[in-house]
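Students often ask why we bother encoding 3D structure as a string. The short answer is that it lets us treat folding as translation between two languages. Here is a chain of 383 residues written in the first language.
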Amino acid sequence: MEFLDWLDDNFPRDFFDETIAQQALRHLRIPEKTELFAEDYVLQRTAEGRWYEFLVYEILLALSLRTDTLKAVVRKGADAQGPHIRPHSDQNGFYYSEKGNLTVRGNGQTIAEMDLFFVDHHGDLGFFEVITSAMGLKEFHDEISYKKMLLGSMLGQRRVPFVLVSSADVSRYSSIQQIAAEPDNLVLITDPIEEIRDLIYEGSIRKRPGKPAPHPKFLDLAGIRPGHAFDYRAIHDHNREQVVRAMLSGGDGGMDALSAVVNPLSKKIMLGTLDDAGVEAMLHDRAVRVKDAVYDADDVNREFRRVVIAFDIPAYTPVIYLKVKGKEEYLKIVQNNSGDLVYQSKRTPTRSMEGFYEWLNEEKPLVSATVAESYASLFLDMN
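And here it is in the second language, the structure alphabet:
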């Protein structure tokens, strides 16, 4: 019997095990436990989602002892061993986040995060996603497809099993139906979180559930090694080279010509730095709005130390980074629904952005005004 078939038959949808519900609380930090009973609805819902994720983790640990179709469960939360390793460039592989979450880093950046990892009886690594609402499902199928492709490429697996566990009935959403219809996927809908959370109460957060004995099916995240050489920076740099070559070829293939040469493991392609002429070519009839200020090409050249052009995959949407003079920060500029270039957020060398900032701040290849003009035509006009 396959693990996903076994899990479909045995995972509890109507869950009323108070012991496991209490056990899941041990993974939450004290502020998260308190927020489970906060008057602020947003804080409460966020904490509920975190608790529900660990509830599924504890259920999986318990179920794993009843079947040979599940070989291992990767530690997370309070069970994660070893210190958090801060991100820096050249990191490629599996790492715990600062909160003990399971992530994949490429060139020091978090390129994917999974809620749970497991190894089935075939020796294939699979993953869970755990949700408590139907928000953000429009791109969910694309997100899962990317993660399956990423893990398959890293580990040399032809199949990557995936399980979605949701406390909201999301079965009618097209992205979920797509996932359910594809091989090696399973969608499980449980009782609503509002009912399940009755298993805990404010007194629960003062209890200190004992740390369980070592689990016989625990697997350390550090024990998962990419089976194939995985160099995210090399993938990116090859993509960049191919895209720039396509832009300079003068062909009329448009965006299709670019997407045909891109390895989709890249989530973003940094095309390079613009000189003054490049900025003029890109912004010759456009402006950039940063809060209440509006900058034309001359203003950008005068006010900012560096301009880096990029685009996101798979949406192929433009992103421009402006290095602020005298500060360790970049302004991230995106295109809004009206086609205007507007400020979205900052990129600074904080803990969460350290790996990405380090990469962004490296000297980028200088791209010609021809590439800048092609970038504007392909990304700014078409989008």
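Translate back mentally: The first strand starts at residue 70 and ends at 74. Keep this in mind for the problem set.
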